[in-house]
Amino acid sequence: MGAVRLHPDWRYVNGDTLFNRFTLEVRGCTDRERAYIESVESGDPVDDPEVRRRLREESIITESEDPDSLLPEYEQRAKRTDDIDVHRIRFYVTERCNMGCPGCFVRFKYRNDEDFQNSDKRKAERTVDFLREENEGDSFQIHFLGGEPLIGFELIEHTVSYAEEVCEETDPEFSLTTNATIVTEEIAEYLDEKDFTVGVSFDGDEELNDQSRMYMDDSGTYEDAVEGFELLKEHMDDGVGILVTPQPLNIDVLSDVTEKLVDRLDPDGLTINDPFHSDGTWEVDGRKFAEELKPIVELCEREKIPLISPLSQVLKALGRKEPKVQTLTTQERNFSCAVSVDGRICYHIMNYDEELFPNPIEEQSDERFEQWATYSGYQHEECRNCIALNTCGGPDPIESYYGTGHVDELELNPERCKFYKHMTGWVASKLSDAEAELDPA
User: Fold this and answer.
1) What are the tens digits of pLDDT across the range 212-225?
2) Topology (CATH level 3) of domain 85-368
């Protein structure tokens, strides 16, 4: 037997909470337990036989040099693909856009506007057929993207009509992301009729937004986007939200500008995207992003606004005790793909590099699918010992690709790691009920 130590499956966070990184159990600590655990971590345990016995019985502390761990069991879960369905596809309607944002990844692909491509009805129908076959009668989701997808509004209408025709036994769900500057009453009424969920992109208040979201002549788009958003709200019963992407331009004031947007627009939902990334890492500090996101979480709780953000998977994991063991597969065993304008399928969400879109949707590769579906932190030694192993899901292959040029050997994104480590501890502390564990002794 060795010296007493915290069991490797457990973490002690924020001076008040014990967290099992596999079962996701959260446990508050009494004052005596805190004192004992902190003395154990310092290497000089205090003499408290009662607390020591209790923590040993719960397998929170151990004296074994090689204690039993849940790691092998959960590692096997991360290798499973038998019950994974492609539940959602992001369908790129067009590469064209009426704006000229300097950070747009599509604009890095082409020099001339005439080179931009559009999808077509055949590719849309094949996408619907693919989802119908994948889900075997269950519902699925299609999310329309661009460019600016409303430039291809007729193709959106055709896709929805075809899906309704061939999927009578299901109820497909539709959504889109738009800059809202070309919304009309006709479009808004159609989106309402078809129960669309719509996300309108902003980068902040007018001053910040118009530095990064601009027309081809460099004029700002904020007021036009607000007008389009309000038109959507006027004609749609529900489902009109806003999307904000953290980036160097807005990260220092992210919570403030998000609150301003919420106050002005009264959205039905809010999405905070993953930050912009380059060279394999986020362009913002992960800890700073975490601190800016906390007030946004509190804002949405206070205003009862549904929030989607990188924190969502942590909240889901700890709230439901459902570990996220794979990077791209959800706890519900759902998987998202993207279909480019030329009909190629990518087992992720964005960009057009052939390395990422190797096959036409008709020739999607089961081997390639299994490779992407089973990416996990269990493949990376540093992740295997991390507090966020089963809340983060592991390295993101797209971010790794832009850092290394390939997806076969995943590299860690240090800013992403900082974010998920901190937020996992923060959520665990919020969920712990220390008072229920109080020991009057």
Assistant:
1) 999 999 999 999 99
2) TIM Barrel (3.20.20)
